[in-house]
Structures are given as structure tokens and as C-alpha cells.
Design goal:
Blueprint (H helix, E strand, L loop, with lengths): L1 E2 L22 E5 L6 H13 L4 E6 L4 H7 L4 E4 L3 H9 L3 E4 L7 H13 L5 E4 L1 H7 L6 H4 L4 E4 L3 H8 L8 H11 L2 E4 L5 E3 L6 E2 L12 H16 L4 H20 L7 H15 L2
Parallel strand pairs: 1-10, 2-3, 2-5, 3-4, 5-6, 6-7, 7-8
Antiparallel strand pairs: 8-9, 9-10
Bound molecules: ligand NAX, adenosine-5'-diphosphate (ADP) and magnesium ion.
Keywords: ATP-binding, Lyase, NAD, NADP, Nucleotide-binding
Organism: Ligilactobacillus pabuli
Protein name: ADP-dependent (S)-NAD(P)H-hydrate dehydratase
């Protein structure tokens, strides 16, 4: 087991002058039913603020006005418009699916469309409701794994649902066994989050704290991971992922110096400054 340190932030690179939005990746965020619109708005906004070149949000039409108000940089596709969904998936560098998606029938359809279309050169970040839905079909996960590079971001309860390992039994050895079975990367979120990536020693996040325990905090992390994978994954995807996870909690730690709780939207607001300070 390896503890992550601030050294990982060297992943964040100064931008070359000769570049444009296409250079920094296309992120597609999929989620947000009528009940959980905020989740996908935070994911989308985090991806924009962490530097993804182009971000498209696939969400319930009820969330359109809020999306354009909260993050006008993002484009919108209705979660009922399967034909446009297929188009945006095809051109994506990174896809996030799950924040606030819910588990209704239409959500399961969308998840199936994405799993069928994702390709080996794309990263697919699977979070929240998408993990909960996959728990019902976990026996098929090894079939899905070759398509796209899967990054699961469960909290302990979601990991229990998906892996079948009870929270009390979520030891490094048990978790590693399941991660290998899924041929995916697993970011197991909790106090001292752990990252289980293929052919890499387990990484442990030694920072972050209870001031982060607010709904939307994990939704925000998905957007940061997406933007980091879109921009920095070329040479070393594991380090890009670890840097995203580290950045999320490092900003929370800084803000907690004079705040009782740190809100997901506070972290989003701070991303640009933090990344500028740490860019090499
Ligand atoms: N503003 C919004 O729209 C929000 C939407 N959300 C969405 O709501 C859906 C359901 O997700 P939830 O996570 O709320 O519900 P879940 O039912 O999946 O998990 C929550 C339960 O897990 C337990 N738990 C045990 N260990 C935990 C750990 N280490 N971290 C977090 N919880 C732990 C909690 O106490 C709670 O009872 C997801 O799609 C999610 O993205 C949530 O993110 C909350 C905010
Ligand atoms: N006590 C804590 N210490 C460190 N990190 C925490 C703590 N509580 C929550 N977090 C972090 O907040 C995030 C919560 O994710 P998640 O439960 O998926 O939130 P949501 O689904 O509401 O967005 C994770 O990154 C987790 O590691
Ligand atoms: Mg979550």
C-alpha cells in the first residue's frame, strides 16, 4: 500500500500555447433524473472547472434551465434523446455515468446503451446509481470490462452492493480480488479512500476529513476525475486518476481551515486556482 502525497500533483501540466478546446478532451456526463438534478450539475460543473475542453451533460429535460444557469459552458442532451446520446458517446474522450441517474427503467436503458457503445480508447467512470444498477448484473461485468477502461467510484455501501463484500469485510485483499475480477479500477471512497488499479500497488489517500461529508461530494469528484483523465491521462492514467482524487481532498483540507463544512460547490469554485498553483 502506497500513501499518496502532494508529489502526485506534478501530473497537472502548464498548457501549451498551441492548443484549443479539442486538445483538452470531450467529457460527457450522464445522470440527474428529476429528483437528483443537482448531482449531475455538480459533476458537470466540476469537469468544466477542472479544465475539460468540451463538456456535454445528458440529463432529464427538467434540469435544462438549471444546467444553463449553473454552468453555461456545458452543452445539453435530453436523457430521452437516445439518438443524440449515441452520437455524443461516440465522440467522447471520457464518460461519467451515474450521479443522480436513479434506477428507473429509462436509467437502465441508458446504462445499457453506454455499456454497448463504449470503446477501448475511452474512459468510463461509473458512479452512484449506475453502480447500484450494475449490482444486479454483476455476473456479466467481466464481459463488459474489455470495452472501455472502467473506473468505478463507489462509496462503501455501493461497493458492498456491487462486490458482495460487506463493509466490515472490505479488506485490501478482498477488494483487490474483486477489482481483478472486474478488470477495472476501483476508487473506494471513504475516510482515507483507496484506489485499486490494475498492476499497480494499492494507493491510499491520507488527506480529507469529515467536513467533506455533504451530499454531492462524490458527484463532484466524478467531474474532477473526468477532466483529469481527459487532459492528463496520456502517459500515465493511474497517476492522472490519483491526482484527481488527491486534488478533491486537498482543496477540501485547505478550505476546512476556516470552514466547519466544505461544500461540493466550494471545491468546484476553487479548482481553477488550485490547479494554477500546482501546474508544472
Ligand atoms: N444533490 C443531489 O442531487 C444528490 C444526489 N445524489 C445521488 O443520489 C443517488 C443515491 O446515492 P446515495 O449515496 O445518496 O444513496 P445510497 O443508498 O447508494 O447510499 C447511501 C447509504 O450508504 C451509507 N454509507 C455507508 N458507508 C458510506 C460511505 N463511506 N459513504 C457514503 N455513504 C455510506 C449511508 O449512510 C447511506 O445510508 C446517487 O445517484 C447519487 O449520485 C447524492 O449524491 C446526494 C446529492
Ligand atoms: N469523513 C470523511 N473523511 C474523508 N473524506 C470523506 C469523509 N466523508 C465523505 N468523504 C468524501 O466525500 C465523498 C463522498 O462521496 P459520496 O458518498 O459518493 O457522495 P455523494 O454521492 O453524495 O456525492 C467521497 O470522496 C468521500 O471520500
Ligand atoms: Mg455518490
Amino acid at each position: 500500500m502506497q500513501d499518496l502525497t502532494a508529489e502526485i500533483l506534478t501530473v497537472i501540466k502548464k498548457r501549451p500555447t498551441q492548443s484549443h478546446k479539442g486538445t483538452y478532451g470531450r467529457v460527457v456526463t450522464i445522470g440527474g433524473n428529476k429528483q437528483y438534478g443537482g448531482a449531475i450539475l455538480m459533476s458537470t460543473s466540476a469537469a468544466v472547472h477542472a479544465g475539460a475542453g468540451l463538456v456535454t451533460c445528458v440529463t432529464a429535460p427538467e434540469n435544462l434551465s438549471a444546467l444553463h444557469t449553473f454552468v453555461p459552458e456545458a452543452m445539453f442532451v435530453s436523457s430521452h434523446d437516445y439518438s443524440t446520446l449515441v452520437d455524443v458517446i461516440q465522440s467522447a474522450t471520457v464518460i461519467v455515468i451515474g450521479p443522480g441517474l436513479g434506477t428507473e427503467d429509462f436509467a437502465a436503458d441508458i446504462l445499457q446503451i453506454v455499456l454497448n457503445r463504449v470503446t477501448d480508447d475511452q474512459y468510463l467512470i461509473i458512479d452512484g446509481s449506475a453502480i447500484t444498477m450494475l449490482a444486479d448484473v454483476k455476473d456479466q461485468l467481466h464481459i463488459m470490462a474489455p470495452h472501455g477502461q472502467l473506473i468505478f467510484t463507489p462509496h462503501e455501501m455501493e461497493w458492498q452492493r456491487l462486490s458482495g463484500i460487506k463493509i466490515a469485510d472490505q479488506t485490501e485483499e478482498n477488494n483487490r480480488q474483486k477489482q481483478e475480477e472486474y478488470q477495472a479500477t476501483v476508487v473506494l471512497k471513504k475516510h482515507h479512500t483507496k484506489i485499486y488499479a490494475p498492476q499497480t500497488p494499492t494507493m491510499r489517500l491520507p488527506i480529507g476529513g469529515p467536513y467533506m461529508a455533504t451530499g454531492g461530494m462524490g458527484d463532484t469528484l466524478t467531474g474532477i476525475i473526468a477532466a483529469f483523465m481527459a487532459q492528463f491521462a496520456h502517459d500515465d492514467p493511474q497517476s492522472a486518476l490519483a491526482a484527481a482524487v488527491y486534488t478533491h481532498s486537498a482543496i477540501a483540507d485547505e478550505l476546512s481551515e476556516d470552514a466547519y463544512v466544505v461544500l461540493p460547490t466550494d471545491i468546484i469554485e476553487r479548482l481553477q486556482k488550485f490547479m494554477k498553483e500546482h501546474s508544472k
